[in-house]
Amino acid sequence: MRWHGLLDRYAGVGLIAYHDAWPYFARRFRLDIVGFIEPKPGIAPTPSHLRAVIDEGRRRAVRAIVHDALQPQDASRFVARALDVPVVTLAVSVGSAPGTADYLDLIDANVTALARALDNASKAR
User: Fold this and answer.
1) What's the half-sphere exposure (Cβ side, CA atoms, 13 Å) at 60?
2) In which domain, by residue range, is 26 found?
3) How many domains is the chain partitioned into structurally?
């Protein structure tokens, strides 16, 4: 497993996801998804919902926004700017991004992208 250990130092780190597509990924890598930008599947966030997500993100010291490349990015970017954290675009399924031809490639690409974003954000602080 190429990705083994890449996220160990980030166990327990808080993330916000665009929508609830990451429970198994978060559990496997001991990440804490503290909120979702999309309040319900297919429902765009309202300004009051975004305010609540940002407030929770500040309270929980969120370190990144996890975004699916197939979803609109405006709300994720808005929340990321408000929290001064990166937006990390992850592949939600095999073949949905370059280099994700099979499941292990998918996990490798996502772990690598998230670790790189968290590493870069840590260096910038």
Assistant:
1) 20
2) 8-124
3) 1
